[in-house]
Structures are given as structure tokens and as C-alpha cells.
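Model it.
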Amino acid sequence: MAGASRPEDRPLSPHLSIWRWHVTMATSILHRFSGIGLYGAAVCLAVWLIAVAAGPEAYAPVGAFLATKVGMAGMYLVVAALAYHLANGIRHLVFDTGAGLTPQDADASAWFAILFGFAAPIGLWALLTFGG
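Modeled.
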């Protein structure tokens, strides 16, 4: 191949120092992290279910851990990751139809997904605490 450049002569792909940070970039990264977190949450759910099935003496340490601040923060993060991943997944399904692809629409839906990820666990807590 005449004129083909060598790999070391090719330009490097853009890096974070080159690109201006924007919210749609953050949602892409958060979507990946929330997906990874949900895999870990699935393992924790399996451990919880095994402890429940094993009886009260096996469940006691798991229940005690979930009642701590670390356990409650973990449950908040799991619900937040699930809510964010769901909202961002729906956002991408809408993108697949060809709608919402303008920069303004993409930014607005990105902010909605992020805010929904924060608000959904709080709303669920309020519903479980104060709901009838």
C-alpha cells in the first residue's frame, strides 16, 4: 500500500483535554458506570435472597448491615443507578426513532436523566415512609 502511514504517525484520538466537557458526554460515562454498578447490585440482591431463604439467623447480619448508614447509602445508590440507567435507556430509545437529536433536546434530556437519578430514590423513600 503506497502512501499508507505507519501507526505511530497517525493522529491520536481526541482526549478529555481537547474536547469541551458537556452534559451528554457525562451521561454516556454515567450510563456505563451505572450499568457496572447494577451488575454488582444484582450480586448483592442474590446474597440478600440467599440470606432470606436460609432463615432468620443467616439474615440477621445482612439485615443489620443494611440498617447501617453505609447499607442505606448503598441502597440509595442502587436505586439511583437503576433510575438513571432506566431514564437514560429510554432517552436512547427515543434517539433511535430520530427524535431529540438536536443539541438543545439532547442536553435537556440528559439533564432530565441525571435529575431523575437523584430524585427517584428520594421519591421512593418518601412514598415508602409517608405513603399509606
